[in-house]
Amino acid sequence: MLARQRQEVILEEIRRTGAVQVHALVARLGVSDMTIRRDLDVLAKRGLVEKVYGGATAAVGQPSAHEPGFEAKSVRSLPQKEAISAYAAALIRPGTAIGISAGTTTWTFARFLDEVPELTVVTNSIRVADVLRAGGRGDRTVVLTGGVRTPSDALVGPVAVQTLKSLHLDMVFLGVHGMAEGPGFTTPNINESETDRALVDAGRRLVVIADHTKWGVVGISTIARLDEADVLITDDGLPADAVAVLRDRVGELVVAEARPEVGELAEAEA
Predict the structure, then answer these.
(1) Which of 94, 123, 196, 211 could in theory staple to 80 by disulfide, Cβ–Cβ 3.0 to 4.6 A?
(2) Prediction pTM value
(3) Residue 86, class by beta-carbon neighbours within 10 Å (0-12 exposed, 13-18 middle, 19+ buried)?
(4) Is 89 exposed, middle or buried (0-12, 13-18, 19+ CB in 10 A)?
């Protein structure tokens, strides 16, 4: 198992129980005590866990308004994000105009768009815009909204909202901080939620891309209700009860099967 995969298992266990112990992780993952301690060091440095004697707990002081930075979130659920992105990219027809919100899932998704010709992309994400421009397609137009920069490298606020209100997009791809039955799709940043709502309103069709770890997470501000999503693409780690709720609420639920890249399987244990 790769370091990234081990760290995701550790994070999942902390989300489920609130804490992990080194000796239990050694037995579960079949690696050395030192390997687990290195994984906990990495997660602690990223602000994702709090190290304690013999293990780790959930990071202190992360209420519904807490927003991790881009680098901290990019380590999470990468195989799942790639599987989701592949499905999402297949929905796009050549020559269309799409919107892409900010976030690590949408940043991953942007890397899957190089084969789509004559695409116009509107985004409030500096990272997404950089990926799209690096693709080097001469038939692609990338529009960056402008605005005030957040910890997730989103551009938000009145400038971004005003830009989006004047646009009409075929499809919007929305990444979210959390999704739950009552609050719907949420974010920990109030200004970002206003900008994301403007992006949603600009599109004729809404596609939400969110891995299973987002289920049950509630940010301080709602972007959209569950039933506003025409399509929700998630991964096969989603619990059965969540699948039942989402199939009933969203227009279409797509569950992608996450598989590690072939090259990753040969990577030595970190």
Answers:
(1) 211
(2) 0.71
(3) middle
(4) middle
The span from the CA of 194 to the CA of 92, in Å, is: 25
CB 138, CB 202: distance < 8 Å: no
Give the closest residue to 62 by CA, choosing from 208, 178, 200. Answer: 178
Q: What is the largest CA-CA distance in the chain?
A: 56
Distance between CA atoms of residues 156 and 192, nearest Å: 5
The better pLDDT of the pair 70, 83 is held by 83
Q: Look at residue 4 in the predicted model and tell me its pLDDT.
A: 79
The percent of residues in the chain predicted with pLDDT above 70, rounded, is: 88
Cα 76–Cα 81–Cα 84 angle in degrees, nearest 5: 155
Half-sphere exposure of residue 88: CA atoms within 13 angstroms, side-chain side: 36
What is d(CA 267, CA 28) in angstroms, rounded to the nearest whole number? 20
- CB distance 185 to 209 below 8 Å: no
pLDDT tens digits, residue range 85-131?
Answer: 999 999 999 999 999 999 889 999 999 999 899 999 999 999 999 99
Phi, psi of 49 (to 5 degrees): -140, 165
Which secondary structure element, helix H or strand E, spans residue 95, and what is its range?
Answer: none
Q: What is the pLDDT of residue 59?
A: 67
Helix ranges (DSSP H) in the chain: 3-17, 22-29, 33-45, 70-74, 78-89, 104-110, 126-134, 158-165, 190-202, 240-249, 262-265
